[in-house]
Amino acid sequence: MKNQVLEQFNKIYPDASSPIIIRSPGRINIIGEHADYNEGFVLPAAIDKAIYVAISKRDDDEIHVYAGDYNESHVVHTDAVAISEKHWPNYILGVVDQLQKRSYKIAGFNLVIDGDVPLGAGLSSSAAVECATAFALNELFGLGLTRLEMVQIAQKAEHTFAGVMCGIMDQFASMFGKKDHVIQLDCRSIEYEYVPLELKGYKILLLNTNVKHSLSSSAYNERREQCEQGVAWVREYNKDVLSLRDVTMQMLDDHVLPKDELIYKRCKYVVEEIQRLLQGCKDLQHGDVNALGKKMFRTHEGLSKEYEVSCEELDFLVDAVKDDVDVIGARMMGGGFGGCTINIIKEEAIEGIASRLKPLYKQAFDKDLDYYIASIEDGTSFVTYELSELKSA
Ligand code: GLA
Q1: Whose CA is nearest to atom 10 of ligand 1?
Q2: Which residues make Cβ contacts (< 8 Å) with residue 117, sequence separation at least 6?
Q3: What distance, in Å, lies between the first and last C-alpha atoms of the chain?
Q4: pLDDT category, 374, cuts 50, 70, 90?
Q5: Phi-psi region of 320 (alpha: psi -120 to 50; beta: other; left: phi over 0)
Q6: What pLDDT, in 10s, does the model give residues 330-348?
Q7: Which is nearest to 30 in space by CA: 220, 294, 348?
Q8: What is the DSSP pairing of strand 202-208 with strand 340-346?
Q9: For range 136-156, the mean pLDDT
Q10: In ligand 1, which atom is closest to the CA atom of 35?
Q11: Residue range 28-36: average pLDDT?
C-alpha cells in the first residue's frame, strides 16, 4: 500500500516536495454496539486494513486532494472549504474545516489518499480517513494537537461534513489502537484500558455482505434521537439521568413504555447492551471466550429485533453460523444496514465455513460473500520510507 500511495503521489504531483505518509486503520468492535453516543462502553480494536495519506506543503493556499479509490481529484482554496457533492473529499475537508474553526492556520497542501479498508463495509473507512487527515495536518503544520483532540476533530468532521451524528468509537479506535489489544473505552469519561485479546485458537473472521450501508445515515441519526427522547422522558422524573448510561430497565418500564413502545424497544436494547459489555469484558479478562461469544449472539438479536439496524443479509450470515460448534460468537458490526458480521471462529474451521457459506449466500441474495481474518494492529502512525523509494516509485 505504501508503494502504491508513493507512486500515485509522484504521478499526480510530480513537482511537489517529498511527502510524509500516515497510516490510519479501520476498526472492529467486539461488543458494545450503538453504545458510544449513549455514554456507554465499547470494545473496539484497530485492524490490519488501513487508509494511507501522503501529504506535503504547497507554496500557495490551494488544497489539492486525490483519491486512488475513485481516481478523482478535488481542488479548493483554503478560504473556500465547503461540503463537496463528490462526497469522498468531505472526510478530508471536514477535518480542515474543523481545524480552521478552531483558528488553526492551514495553508495549501497536496494530498493523496488510498487504502485497503473496504468502503461501506462497516469497518469505519471514513473515520480512518478523518484520523489520517487530522494526524497528517497536525504534523505538516506543527499544530501540537493531542491524539484525543484529533479524535474529537475527526468525529466533529463526520457530524458536519458527512451528516452522521456518530459517537466517538470509530475515530478513537483508529487513533488509539494497540497491537493485539482491544480498547475498553468508557464513552462518558473517555477513560480507557487496553485489554489483551487472547482468543486461544480462535480468530476474528469478518464476513462482508457487500451490502453498502449507504442509506444508513438518516436511520442512524433517527436512532440517536429516539434514545435522546427516551432519556428526556426518564429525566422528567429523575434529573440525575443524563443519558441511557444512567437508565435502568425499571425506569424504562415506568416512564418510557407507557408513552411509546418503539422508543422503549430502542432504549431497552441500549440499556441491556451497556450491561452486556461490562459482563463481556469480565469474560475476556477471565479468558472465557465462550461466554463472550454467547453475548455477541444476544447483541445481534437486540440489534436485529429491537434496535432494527440489521438487514436480511446480515441476519442470514449470523443464522448460518449460529449452530456451528466452531463459531462461538457472531453478530452484525458497526452502524448496521449492511457491512460485515464479526465472528469468533476456530482457526482450522475458517476455510471450511467460508466455502460452505459462499454458495449459500450467492444463492440467497445473488451477491458475493467476501471474508477477511482481522488481526489487531496499532492505531494511526507514520509510515517511514527511504528517499530512494520515493524516487523509484
Ligand atoms: C458507527 C458510528 C459509531 C457507533 C457505531 C455503532 O460506526 O460511527 O460511532 O455508534 O456505528 O456502534
Answers
A1: 34
A2: 25, 26, 49, 50, 51, 123, 124, 125, 128
A3: 12
A4: very high
A5: alpha
A6: 999 999 999 999 999 999 9
A7: 294
A8: antiparallel
A9: 98
A10: 12
A11: 98
Core vs surface per residue 2-20: b (16+ CB within 10 A) or e: bebbbbbbbebbeebeebb
Selected residue with higher pLDDT from 192 and 286: 192
The one-letter amino acid code at 98 reads Q
All cell numbers assigned to 310: 440489521
The residues assigned a catalytic role are 170
Residue identifier of the C-alpha nearest atom 8 of ligand 1? 166
Pocket test for ligand 1, best of 28, 30, 31, 36 (most atoms within 8 A of CB): 36
Q: Which residues face 110 on adjacent strands?
A: 56, 64
Helices (H) and strands (E) in the chain, counts: 12, 13
Determine whether 392 is exposed, middle or buried from the number of CB atoms within 10 Å of its CB (0-12, 13-18, 19+).
exposed
Query: What mean pLDDT do residues 5-14 have?
Result: 94
CA dist 100 and 174 (Å) reads 23
CB of 34 closer than 6 angstroms to any ligand 1 atom:
yes
* Ligand 1 close to Cβ of residue 167 (< 6 A): yes
Q: Which pTM value belongs to this model?
A: 0.96
104 exposed, middle or buried (CB, 10 Å; 0-12, 13-18, 19+)?
middle
Ligand 1 atom with the shortest distance to the CA of 126: 8
How many angstroms separate the alpha carbon of residue 379 from the centre of ligand 1? Answer: 17
Give the Å distance between the CA of 330 and the centre of ligand 1.
18
Give the three-class secondary structure for 377.
Answer: coil
CB of 40 within 6 A of ligand 1: the answer is no
- The separation between CA 242 and the C-alpha centre of its own chain, rounded to angstroms, equals 25
* Rounded distance from Cα 182 to ligand 1 centre (Å): 16
Tens-digit pLDDT profile for residues 257-295: 999 999 999 999 999 999 999 999 999 888 899 999 999
Please list the alpha-helical segments (H only) found in 13-159.
90-101, 125-140, 147-157
Is 26's C-beta closer than 6 angstroms to any atom of ligand 1?
no
156: three-class secondary structure by DSSP: helix
